[in-house]
Amino acid sequence: MANKAYQKIYTQLEAITKATVSLKAKGVSNDELALVHGRLAQVVRTKGDMVTMQVFAGTEGIPTDAEVAFLGAPPTLKVSEQLSGRFFDAYGHPIDGGPEVEGEERQIGGPSVNPYKRRQPSQLIPTGIAGIDLNNTIVSGQKIPFFADPDQPYNQVMADVALRADVDKIILGGMGLSNDDYLFFRHSFEAAGALDKIICFVNTTEEPPVERLLIPDMALTAAEYFAADKNEKVLVLLTDMTLYADALSIVSNRMDQIPSKDSMPGSLYSDLAKIYEKAVQLPSGGSITIIAVTTLNDGDITHAIPDNTGYITEGQLFLRADSDTGKVIIDPFRSLSRLKQLVQGKQTREDHSQVMNAGVRLYADAQNAKTKLENGFDLSDYDHRCLAYAKEYAVRLLSIDVNITITEMLDTAWELFGKYFSKAETGIKQALIDQYWKDSEAVSK
User: In sequence order, what are the beta bridge partners of 22?
Assistant: First the structure.
């Protein structure tokens, strides 16, 4: 930060709202940091000489003659290998009792990588969760969110993905985490002995909501260092983007901006895209893959936050509770990975896409049978077999607590096909059936 002797200091505020202050000042740039009455603030709007700043800790108690010192630079993060295994707050300061990081100071929130310098994503990122790896395979450089109701165990899933993913670095950006959630992540990573490749930036519910706006930029600045400078595969986990968007709304409302759909700022799409478009596969081999959580309001995917997110990202992973088994599953009907075809059958076994399609189609037939049952229609033998298959398919392949390799997922699917169906009923190519079919005496063929 700039030496105080060179700072521009003002003492006359023109306006104060719950989240922002405004004053007349010259030579101030957007995103620049300032101290307002000793509290950190950031410039969010300049119009002529009028400058508006969001005060991260809130404006309560700030007088109109408060001292304002502009620091001459936007927020920065010191990057080096010393980031590994550490926990930081929204400003990049350690919260784990360790020393400050030494390294190169980099401005956060910079531009995305030039499309000309990007490679088409082509590296599989296995997570061990069959509902993802089998049906919605994730590729390095992809951006994909979890859509989940607030009562779903999405943070547990994020921790599982972090510990299972075959990547060099995992960077967690936690926004609005409860203390329990923060401690859960910390204890999970420590117990697994995986801290050396994990970096966490955390804003808890006890801290000002506006601080959440810094978390994604901090996480992605660290990610860009390891991906671009160190040629590493980096997985960025962001939770919860709905709380991030709520913080955007707080600031825009306090600035008297006219809200858009669902009280969100009109800039929501570009604000979200600025984050998600940092996902990239670099020619050097380094990559940034982004998996984020977007919590839903009563399952409403038409709300502005998931709606805008769906336009930006390359699919979504939909968490839901399965009423038949009591398991939390990755919903095969509402989930989608738009890049899965880049690796299925190329970096996985040749039968992958056929097995995936057959598995989901038979599961859909079970849902049709369930509807017939609920409406009082008689069920056929095939319907009964579909229903039995669906329960086992949900427990063994859709549930989030499954942790097996993709080859084991494919073998499990073949086992279920052989147990409940004839070869013809699967609709799989004969050549693949000849090679992989696992016969079972459970059902007469």
Answer: 15, 52
Same domain, 291 and 172: yes
Q: What are the residues whose beta carbons fall under 8 Å from the beta carbon of 327, sequence distance 6 or more?
A: 321, 394, 395, 398, 399, 400, 401
Grouping H, G, I as helix, E, B as strand and the rest as coil, residue 207 is coil
Ramachandran angles phi, psi of 337, nearest 5° = -120, 110
- Is-contact 357 384, C-beta < 8 A? no
Dist. CA 250–CA 421, nearest whole Å: 55
- 441 inside domain: no
414 shares a domain with 278: no
Task: Supply the CATH number for residue 150's domain.
Answer: 3.40.50.12240
pTM of the predicted model over 0.70:
yes
Query: For residue 10, what is the domain's CATH number?
Result: 2.40.30.20
Give the pLDDT of residue 2.
41
Q: How many domains does the chain have?
A: 3
User: Is the alpha carbon torsion for 174, 179, 185, 190 positive or negative?
Assistant: positive
257 CB-near residues (< 8 Å, 6+ apart): 265, 266
Place of tokens 């020619």: 283
Distance of CA 289 to the CA centre of its chain: 9
Q: Residue 370: its pLDDT value, please?
A: 93
- pLDDT value, residue 5: 43
pLDDT of 61 reads 92
pLDDT at position 444:
42
Local structure of residue 397 (DSSP, 8 states):
I
Q: Which domain holds residue 40?
A: 4-70
**Bridge partners for 20 per DSSP:** 54
CA angle 35, 111, 241 (to 5 degrees): 75
pLDDT means per 10 residues in the chain (445 residues)? 58 88 90 90 90 88 92 90 95 93 91 80 89 94 94 92 91 95 92 89 91 94 96 95 91 68 85 95 93 91 93 94 92 94 94 96 96 92 96 96 94 96 95 87 46
C-alpha span between 363 and 421 (Å, rounded): 12
Would you call the peptide bond into 240 cis, given omega within 30 degrees of 0 as the criterion? Answer: yes
**Which residues fall within 8 angstroms of residue 56, CB to CB, at 6 or more apart?**
39, 40, 41, 42, 90, 208, 210, 211, 214
